[in-house]
Amino acid sequence: MAAEVVSLFLLGLVRTLTGSQARWWGCPPKAEQRIYFANHQSHVDLVMIWAALPKELRHSTRAVAARDYWTKSPFKKWLTSAVFNVIYVSRTREADEDPLEPLIDALHAGDSLILFPEGTRGHADEPQPFKAGLYNLALKFPHIELIPAWIANVQRVMPKGEVVPVPVLCSVTFGAPMLLQDGEDIHVFLQRARSAVLALRDI
Question: What CATH class is the domain 19-198?
Fold first, then answer.
């Protein structure tokens, strides 16, 4: 009950602060399993893309978040686990640990994912090079659509290093689905995925 109340409060807050415009440019919102991947410039990104999804998709779509940051305090841990139902990943791990294991488990369970393939927040208008995780998931789940997304202006709401949000109009633009091509090289795929995100910037 508390999680549902906080969820509704956060939706209202995000929409008040950002305008929270969702633009489905290349695909309609569908209740089917997908992997959404987006640029990453602020901790608010997670909340923005979650809020941009229709209610019927939010319950089955789980964002991937850094364990060290989002479990730093009991409140952050409760918020991300009870409200957002995120999947935690460790930025430091043991040599034999597979960082994708919890994501693979979630996909096998039928969940959709929200990924930030840069792996860390950036300052630039262009995404940093994508890490291999998106490719490895596409290789293991070739039937799941990959949906690029561009989150605009959110870095001005809460830039890296800031703690107080500022009201700014923001939007999330979802692009056309893509799939890993047969025999596609990892570097070619990751560049194609990054270009698909970047192409949404000026739409």
Answer: alpha beta
* Pair type for strands 21-24 and 61-66: unpaired
Closest CA to 52 of 82, 81, 80, 29: 29
Given a contact cutoff of 8 angstroms between Cβ atoms, the answer to whether 44 and 154 are in contact is: yes
Strands 61-66 and 34-38 come out as: unpaired
Q: How far apart are CA 81 and CA 76, in angstroms?
A: 8
CB 55 within 8 A of CB 167: no
Question: Which of 177, 62, 160, 173 is CA-nearest to residue 111?
Answer: 62
The pTM assigned to this predicted structure is 0.87
Q: What backbone phi and psi angles, to 5 degrees, belong to 115?
A: -115, 150
Q: For residues 38 and 23, give the distance between their C-alpha atoms in angstroms, rounded to a whole number.
A: 14
Lookup: tokens for 160: 């890296």
**141-178: pLDDT as tens digits:** 999 999 999 988 665 555 555 555 554 567 899 999 99
CA separation, residue 172 to residues 11, 18, 36, 156, 169 (Å): 14, 11, 11, 14, 11
